[in-house]
Specification:
Blueprint (H helix, E strand, L loop, with lengths): L2 H15 L5 E2 L11 E2 L11 H14 L2 H13 L2 E2 H8 L3 H13 L3 E6 L2 E6 L1 H15 L1
Length: about 140
């Protein structure tokens, strides 16, 4: 029995255990594999994969220890610049900016430009939406 045949058999067994494999219509005959018949399902999957990916990015943006510290720090101070944030947290400026960019893309923080300064504030409405979503997800 070749290595490829063994890999196919193992994959088929694992998929069968997970109930993802098609049903076998013939006994296994080595070195040829049995023909298979796919399980039929008439129920469409009503899942917007783009929205799921977007939601996972938003949840990932909040699920990071440093970003949680940044959110907490901005919340305690009302509004802060990137300079104030990286000085208080003892970070490199580039690290603080990268994490703030992630929070900004997921709309967790809002920005206001005043001259050459960009002020960051916490978007409490967005955090409330995320909290409600997580609560519903876990219910």
């Amino acid at each position: 029995m070749s290595f490829t045949t063994i890999k196919c058999v193992i994959l088929l067994l694992v998929l069968r255990l997970l109930d993802l494999a098609p049903e076998i219509t013939q006994p296994l005959n080595y070195p040829e594999m049995a023909t298979t018949k796919k399980k039929e399902s008439n129920v469409p999957i009503p899942l917007d994969y783009h929205a799921v990916k977007k939601a996972s990015l938003i949840l990932r943006s909040v699920n990071h220890k440093l970003r949680q510290q940044i959110i907490q720090l901005i919340n305690e101070n009302g509004q802060m610049t990137v300079t104030e944030i990286y000085v208080k947290l003892r970070l490199e400026q580039s690290v603080a900016s990268q994490h703030l960019a992630i929070l900004r893309r997921s709309n967790i923080v809002k920005t206001t430009r005043e001259g050459k300064f960009i002020w960051y504030t916490v978007n409490h409405d967005r955090l409330q939406e995320v909290n409600e979503f997580v609560t519903q997800l876990l219910a």
